[in-house]
Amino acid sequence: MEYFSVQQAARLLGISPRRLRRWEKIGFISRTIENSDGCFYSFQDLVGLKAAVELIAGGISLQQVTRSLEFIRKKFPEIEKLSQLKFFARNNMLLMRYNGNSFDPISGQLLMSFEEDTPATPKSFTSKKKERNQLFWFEYGLRYDIEGRWQLAVRAYRKALRMDPTLVDCWNNLATIYYRVGRKKKAVRFYRNALKINPGYKLAYYNLGNIFEEMKRYQPAIKMYLKSIEIDPNYFDAHYNLALVYDKTHCYPEACHHWGIYLKYDSSSRWARYARDRVQEISRVMVHNGEKA
Length: 293
Hints:
- The chain is α+β, with helices and mostly antiparallel strands.
- It folds into 3 domains: 1-118, Orthogonal Bundle (Multidrug-efflux Transporter Regulator, Chain: A, Domain 2), CATH 1.10.1660; 126-232, Serine Threonine Protein Phosphatase 5, Tetratricopeptide repeat (Alpha Horseshoe); 236-293, no CATH class.
- The protein contains 13 helices and 7 strands.
- A hairpin with a 6-residue loop joins strand 6 (101-103) and strand 7 (110-113).
- The protein starts with a strand and ends in a 5-residue tail after the last helix.
- Mean pLDDT is 77; it is low at 112-130.
């Protein structure tokens, strides 16, 4: 498939369709394919979006990425879409690549050239061509990840990590693949590897919360969700999942509190409807029992 709907893109990227539409509304992204069936994301759109999502999840704010895009568009007016840019982080700094160059998008300072280090698509991982750099393999890992070719993605990510073991996004993406195929213990270990490198990586805490919740280890799940919210108080998905765990453990006031925070962000989706219905039901029971709602 060469183009993707909002729902398909959201599922592949691990974010909500509502968030994608919000990003479109503020001009952060756009669907670059238009045909008789409607507007869609291209594969290249998803590659760029995947990198941006990981950066944002790793602690770089959407506002910073948006400001960077504004600067880049002024500096390079020929840029029309996000997929023309390559995002990556180094030493906790957001960097971008465009037209073979890597630079600080805020200052515009050129950092290094990738022109000679960006070869054509390799025919296999056993190619005898000169060694690729870690960003090359990371990008191929992203491509295979988006396509659902997880075995190839794992090989690309591992090759990148052999070159640079501090690539936190590689550890996180590897963990997510193992989580998808049911190897939860290995996923937990790799998420923790990501957190050793970047203790502020909120997505790793959130993903650990998901795993512990599935394993019915509710107290560790609560701890992980709370940690992700500590890093980002507006991490609404974490608020929602934390409320679910509090509900399962009969901590009803806490569940209502976090669902209330989520509902300030999302008031109309099916998740919002469930949260609203559950809060109302809990409130009725508490009032009936003479408890403070």
